[in-house]
Specification:
Radius of gyration: 20 Å
Strand content: 15-25%
Protein name: ABC transporter substrate-binding protein
Organism: Brevibacillus reuszeri
CATH topology of the largest domain: D-Maltodextrin-Binding Protein, domain 2
Keywords: Signal
Helix content: 40-55%
Order of helices and strands: HEHHEHEHEEEHEHEHEEHHHHH
InterPro entries: NMT1/THI5 (IPR027939), SsuA/THI5 (IPR015168)
Distance between the termini: 29 Å
Structural class: alpha/beta
GO biological process, one term: thiamine biosynthetic process
Amino acid sequence: MKRVNTWTKTIMALTLATSLAACGNQTGTGSSTSTPEAKGGEQSELTIALDWYPNAVHSFLYAAEDQGYFKEENLKVNLQMPSDSNDPLKMAAAGKVDLAISYQPQVVQARSEGIPVVSVGALVRHPLNVIMTRQDSGIDSPGQLAGKNIGYPSIPLDESIVRTVVKQAGGDDSGLSFTDIGFDIVPALTAKKVDAVVGGYINHEQLILEKNGVAVHAFKPFEFGVPDYYELVLATSDDTIGKKQQAIESFLKAIAKGQDYVKNNKEKALDLLLAKQAGEFPLEKDIETKSLDILIPLMDAGDKPFGYQTTESWQTLIDWMKKEKLITTDVKADEVMRDLVR
């Protein structure tokens, strides 16, 4: 979930590593992106990097795997958990994985820095990131955040979100102070180390706070001037989409079936997820159950297929990010997204 600005050096390093690995793998197995797209009856192989450890938002993947939807599309799919949530998009850009679950603002930022990444599908169609205050703090509207101390994970995007929300609510953002709390969102608000936090999600940190007896006010930024962007998207590189577009389109069909299964079989989908939980990141069943209830409507594209995305959403976010100086170069919506869902 942590987003940084050191894209170029990291991508160059990863690209070099990929090239060296290819040179040393002439007779062995290399990265899956180096394999030509399967033809005829051959099975296509795709490697997918998750954005974080397995949790409710990934249920559609495990459903598609368990129900055989990948096999129906003649795909062999490998799911990888990253060691750092910054890694997936960088790995996709460098050809280390075929697809990565990432964040719409992160994809825009990368593209603005000349990194050849492109979104092929919107997964969570609305932001999960909210500004939270304790209900016992007396801060029950965004305008009251003026002059307060905000805990955040030292991400420029989150600072821009808070400033936009405060100004839109009629407050003065000049007196705001920001304290880097990393991703210790829950402890910071529980111990009243800050007046408010940003970077916590309605389907995770908010649920944990409430479970632990900390009632909160959650201000949704898109109700106060911040674009209603896609929280999670499925991204790849220009090179990979050129080589594997057919396999990616098949993958999108399979995960649409997986999401439909999740909607109609929530308890079974949750059991599949819990069976896949990472040992170092154990899940709480009650939290993931509530999280899935929150996520399902936010992942619903209505009368459009699962994963559908629009140039309007991308352009609106691009324009806002440029206004906030989160990016300094022009990005065109049709460069950063491809609508491949059918």
